[in-house]
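Hey, can you fold this one?
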Amino acid sequence: MDPIPQGASQGLTEDEMQQHAQQQPADDSLGRNDAPQASEQALLYRIHTAETKLGVSRSTIYRLVNEGQLVLIKIGKRSSGITAASVHALIERNKALAY
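Sure. Predicted structure:
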């Protein structure tokens, strides 16, 4: 016995099913997974995220803060973040030194 094609119960022909599958969603129907990652838009990176983005250790992050190369902002009693601008600026400065 042949399996029933998907969409056959809705009365769609095979051509109609293919056209439906190829249609792109409207811009206002973007799902949660289609949006840029939060860390790409963030103003502050948590310490572990800054570590990952720069590929350095936690102690190096704090050393860079003490040297004034990164900006640390307290966001609570036990929380802090590194400004995204300072991370990107550090990357650009180091990129310029590499050339």
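The chain has five helices and three strands. Let me know if you want another pass with a different chain boundary.
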